[in-house]
Batch of 2 targets.
Target 1
Amino acid sequence: MAGASVKGVSSIWTSAKPLFCLTPLDWPITPLPSAKNLSFFYMQVTFKIFRQASNRPAKIQDYTLDVTPGNTILECLNRIKWELDGTLAYRKNCRNTICGSCAMGINGRSALACKENVRQEIERFSPQENGQTPEITIAPLGNFPVIKDLVVDMRSFWDHLEEIDPYVSTQGRAIPEREFLQTPEERSRLEQTGNCIMCGACYSECNAREVNPDFVGPHALAKAYRMATDSRDTQTEQRLEEYNSLDGAWGCTRCYQCNYVCPMDVAPMDQIGKIKGELLDRHDKTTNRPIRHRKVLIELVKEGGWIDERKFGLYVVGNYFQDIRGLLSITPLGLRMVANGKFPLKFHPSEGTEEVRSLIERVQEAERKKM
Amino acid sequence: MLEHDVIIVGGGLAGSRAALAIKQTHPSLDVGLVAKTHPIRSHSVAAQGGIAASLQNVDSEDAWEAHAFDTVKGSDYLADQDAVEFLAKDAPNTIIDLEHMGVLFSRLPDGRIAQRAFGGHSHKRTCYAADKTGHAILHELVNNLRHHGVTIYEEWYVMQLILEDNEAKGIIMYHLLDGHLAVVRAKAVMFATGGYGRVFNTTSNDYASTGDGLAMCAIAGLPLEDMEFVQFHPTGLYPAGVLISEAVRGEGAYLRNSEGERFMEHYAPKQMELAPRDITSRAITLEIRAGRGLHPDGTAGGPCVHLDLRHMGKEKIMSRVPFCWEEAHRLVGVDAIHQPMPVRPTAHYSMGGIPVNTEGQVRWNGDTLVEGFFAAGECACVSVHGANRLGSNSLLECVVYGKRTGIKLAQYVQNRKMPSFDAQTYLDKAQKRIYGLLEQEGNMRIGQLRQQFQDCMSEHCGVFRTDAIMQEGLDKIRQLQDQYHQIRLDDQGDCWNTELIEALELGNLLVVGEMILASAYNRKESRGAHSREDYATRDDEKFLQHTLSYYSPAGIDIQYMPVVINRFQPQERKY
Ligand SMILES: Cc1cc2nc3c(=O)[nH]c(=O)nc-3n(C[C@H](O)[C@H](O)[C@H](O)COP(=O)(O)OP(=O)(O)OC[C@H]3O[C@@H](n4cnc5c(N)ncnc54)[C@H](O)[C@@H]3O)c2cc1C
Ligand code: SF4
Ligand code: SF4
Ligand code: FES
């Protein structure tokens, strides 16, 4: 067991939420060293790992190992488990970024332990200064109850997936003797979402899921887009109807976290955006509040170059004066604003209105052509 | 006690396909499916290259007979030809079935399923989903399980098969979540527990491929068939062992030695890099032995050769085999567009397994079947692969025989009563075994013993074998088995105790390893993947037979069973 030691329990920790995330552009990635360097150069690294039994507060335990920069985080965890401390619990299986078992919080963001390696973690998060031992922090995924250490209870994740009916339905369609034809273009539209390995990294970071436990989550909505777009599926309209809610597509706050962490480049937020696009095309603004929000926003900006906030509230929440309840619900807010001198009594159109309008129209035109 | 009409152990392609087949044909049957991982994490998800079927989408000359012949020839004539016939005939249907279920296959410009070349196949018949074929199929199957009302027990570890009077009656399983032990009683049990790559120190298999199903059968006194035939895939990424799919060679990559030479021209001048896996793995091993291997540190004569994709160009690499490019980049820092990848053979696939008939029912011996017990997929031996499996035939076997076994199971349980047995005795024994492991005071870690064992198997039962080397291996394994009682667990808890699971798995590995060695020792010829330096040729007279090995703690009993040969007469196997 040369070159490894347990430093024991250090501080008590309570918050499980990562504090910040760097965008990929913040850290230039230097070219990888050759295989030679990767396999023969050893360095000491301290792993700070969240240990936790279910419903108990977490504590951080330090383990120091001699590792090579090319070692994946999973390889390091295995060495900790096999050489230092057999009680450490985490999920793993393929060690090759395809089974989706090993997502966890690595240095503050959700990632696959078998995908990330020591060198990149240290370069990005713990640049070495005057000979200090670099550190890598490992925590369980967020938005899930912890079962033990890095193992979380994923029941809600699977249940939410189930809610979007994640299987192609060819009901009511004559089943041919041979395959359904699907052109490479039709197929390529499904490529990105088809790559999802159901690892839970996106769900772990999702802000919408955090505030609304019924929001089905980025993984489910990415899959939902796949289902609605699959040329073989016959339930497209019913599906879109189902996703047309705050627990579905409209719950997404476009925080970008899912796109940022997804190890397979599924880009769930983009897929959700496409579902929203489909919904907007099918509905006029009287359908529901999220759709009205989008449509009114664009309408008003086209009209005045920026938003006339007086109209915005009335149109979106009050549904053009048709939703009396909605109207009443924002009346107190309006009154408070008036009382505090914050209500915009006059609207001044932007000087750039013309320019903004033509820009929007050009985008809308381009969108139409793309379909 | 839990009860189901059918309980299936394993949620990979074979287990999931079987469960769906039961539900599709008899929706009212109550089906349970257990997996020690979540089913979607099963090893099948990692299969890359593709799945074979003579769809004739790319090659109109192809036919099921050609597929069957290639398979039999690839097997070095040890495959059972009735089983191969069903496999090859049913393949196109099976693929269409999967497609209708929603599997995302890669497509031709006209919208049909695309197909590509694969080692040992004489026609372009491998259907694929880029280089994530297993993922594409398994995700669709598993999502359909819940839809069809299959009860899923995920992250339950099955410890024992309950077998009384030549009849399977149920299983005992352990819940990782809280250490709860449960007995499941069923009218029929099916095993689809996958392979045992973890017997070796370098493998393409996932951590869960520990041969549990095989060991449980062996310990229950059932035979294992053809265990000596272990496939070493030629292109495991050095040093990790993860697979660089054969699809890379199917798309045109070259194998080169340290002199830059495409050495396959000395071993299989016609098929070159697309020769079957046994031949290619031996060629690489011989090149390395002859001092023409590479060390990644630059010295010659080392432990790997090069897989060269550079001439394929960026666009082809990134569109056809993007995952392989990513693997090499992530794990060894090689950009395959500009640099060759370091590769060497890696333990990959188990041709042998639980002997079954063509409907998936388990054999007690050549003539008798076990009541209530079925198996399919990599853990079973039907045998369509004989002494060597062709690439993209294994996923096919999983779905074809998974489905067929499912259909048979649905009929089989119609007129069967729920078996009876004394569950408490089994529970007590299992509980005792667990306490024993948790409490035993030793001086060894699991990892140490496992490493010694894996090194022993790799050294004594690798690509090339001899009597002397294997005898030594058998002696060593028995010593290692004795040390099993000296392992000590850090974790005595009952919540997500994966150390306990690893200890149980290691127990299984030790049994499976011994079965492989004993079967290999007794087969004194070279055939397919079983390559002996002291018996360098095939000996049809003595060994055109299946091995059946029976385990007992005192030693392993070896018997033989005839091969079904009804279409293609054995010939010399040349490529
Ligand atoms: C990297 C790689 C690539 C491959 N590529 C191809 C390819 O391109 N084409 C091809 O044809 N073949 C390929 N193969 C082979 C093929 O993938 C496998 O043979 C096949 O997937 C096996 O499927 P299975 O259903 O039999 O078992 P698996 O998918 O291995 O599933 C085994 C199941 O059993 C469960 N299990 C095991 N033990 C227990 C226990 N004790 N208790 C409870 N559950 C248990 C596991 O949890 C799992 O759900 C590849 C193999 C590898 C390693
Ligand atoms: S979308 Fe990406 S992050 Fe989310 S589950 Fe799928 S693969 Fe994981
Ligand atoms: S972009 Fe939307 S779905 Fe993605 S993490 Fe943010 S809120 Fe969740
Ligand atoms: S172990 Fe399978 S994704 Fe990491």
Note: Chain B touches chain A through 69 residues (CB under 8 Å).
Target 2
Amino acid sequence: MTNAKIVNTNALGQVVSRVQIDAVLGICGELKAIPAPLIPVLHAVQEKVGFVPREAVPLIARELNLSIAEVHGVVSFYHYFRQDPGGRHIVHLCRAEACQAVGAAEVEAHAKRTLGVDFHGTTRDGAIRLEPVYCLGNCALGPSIMIDHELHGRVSAQRFDELMQDTRTPAAGGKP
Amino acid sequence: MKTRIYVPRDAAARSVGADATAQAILAEGRRRGIDVEVIRNGSRGLLWLEPLVEVVTPAGRVAYGPVQPADVPGLFNQGFISGASHALAHGPTEEIPYLKSQERLTFARVGVTDPRSLEDYLGHGGYRGLKAALDMEPAAIVAAVTTSGLRGRGGAAFPAGIKWKTVLGVDSPQKYIVCNADEGDSGTFSDRMVMEGDPFLLIEGMTIAGIATGATSGYIYLRWEYPDAKAALNAAIATAYEKHYLGENILGTGKRFDLEVRSGAGAYICGEETSLLESLESKRGQVRFKPPLPAIQGLFGKPTVINNVITLASVPIILDKGAEYYQHFGMGRSRGTLPIQLAGNIKHGGLIEKAFGITLRELLYDYGGGSLTGRPIRAVQVGGPLGAYLPESQFDTCLDYEAFTAIKGMLGHGGIVVFDDTVDMAAQARYAMEFCAVESCGKCTPCRIGSTRGMEVIDRLIAGNNPAKQEKLLRDLCDTLTYGSLCALGGLTPYPVLSALNHFPEDFVTSVRARVPA
Ligand SMILES: Cc1cc2nc3c(=O)[nH]c(=O)nc-3n(C[C@H](O)[C@H](O)[C@H](O)COP(=O)(O)O)c2cc1C
Ligand code: SF4
Ligand code: FES
């Protein structure tokens, strides 16, 4: 992506590259024949690009024969779809009852304080974006968090720090 | 001789280090020149013991847990590969009282078999239900499900057989089976455990549903939060196609059933069946008006059976062992077994499959061993975020749909979330309103706007700002939610709110709130 030609900068100052646009078009081409392809396309785009760029919305609408309003309506309805970049890693922190019962609120406060962000925010080094989630299905071993697609249980404040350290360390499989 | 060792691949086990434990066992075996094979099974559901390692010995499987990588050399030293005793040893797995006292019908294979192995599935009674169904008339399959007394395990407890009968009775060239794997309720993970630990079971249940109702196509709507379940299902589906348990000619009978997994995108409301169908159609997950029922006009406007994972996964044993066998378990109108999930502040959290009729108290203390913190249990929430908070005085309630309705609660998907005496019930009530506001689909005003008003009223109530007036406002607002909501998200949010207020009024009174530790 580094030497990709920059083709557009949107209202949020996001840089959308030719590579990203090609990725979106490729995904649409691949999936448009399946029944009700829009949500699968959005998942694939987010997986590949890291978020659903605003520029992708009209492209997807055109490719799938939908209106821009329809596509936008779907993207904005679902908590999982992100419309802005930011965060090489996504940390989903469970806020639901079973985790509350074992101290999730303290972990949440600790996470926000140590990362210096609120929910939906990204750390200044761009490494970590913090998102709330309502249950990860790990309710007997809370507090639970998910880092990218990896689930972690019994996350204390101290464990949270270790996990963030690992996430930022390439040797531990993280991207700095 | 090769030593076989089971280390769960279940997401909960992995969340506390099962992968590292599996690696450490393999490495230690190599280092000592011992031939070790590690099999990644589902979880037995004794979650406080995860990672629970089982060693296959001539006397059966022997359990050790929780096993961290650092424990592994010591376990080898003490001879755990022959089942020797150790501080982490629990003896033969099947003899552990927590497990031994259960009635595992739906979960019979979970934790026992390798979820990726069709041979293992077949070797443990798998696909016998489908084979029985293939020899039956569709109406007879539906009748068996009806006679079994199986009610939907997703929350509403509607008889599965009646739903299937409606779909069977509609003439349509295209019908669908949809599995609701959105499992959004906090405190629940039984769907996840089945999908990860015994994915062929769900595939078999859905295939039987297809053959029974004339549906040739199925979708599993799976929440994005379950990537491991997705991998397990996709692997099992691929194998099932390859071996002709799915596809255009199931086991040479000429019957067809196709199956696919679709991912949700983080919306609690998409667990509601009509919202789920909208989402499967790649639309905003807004609740549909009923009628038409999904059974008549469901996915893409076609007749659709929509059932929860556990409902569908309970069908194979009904066809295999007979409706009478299944319906013989249970009490009153709640027949069969319920996979109960014990969660939150509990010492021995996990999965307990029991016939309906067990009391909350037995679950909390005999199985659960009391709270994790060792403090008194003050409240439990049963049935997810829309379920009531119950005080100790209601712990003798039996797990039975009607018994819970009678105390203005609901059993829902069978999740029990435990809180100790440090819980602030006013904060829990406020959270219930907040959750409703965050997850509302936006169709009804009371749910969309009223929930935010509810948070504000609770804030003023606990601030002691004209409390009598605020309480009246809150109760009126709950009435409006109850009667003015299209679906149970708005309609049942008053359950947790009012149960907190009615059973724990002291937490809402400024002068008394000092008792609640910060
Ligand atoms: C707000 C809301 C959320 C729901 N979430 C789920 C869910 O996550 N999983 C589920 O199986 N049923 C859920 N349901 C119940 C479904 O609407 C429906 O009753 C169920 O899928 C039918 O399957 P069953 O009869 O096998 O239970 C929910 C209902 C409501 C109102
Ligand atoms: S009650 Fe709430 S979630 Fe249910 S249909 Fe109305 S607005 Fe949507
Ligand atoms: S409540 Fe946090 S994982 Fe279920």
Note: The pocket of flavin mononucleotide (ligand 1) is lined by residues B 152-156, 158, 180, 182-184, 269, 271-273, 306-308, 311, 487-489 (CB under 6 Å).
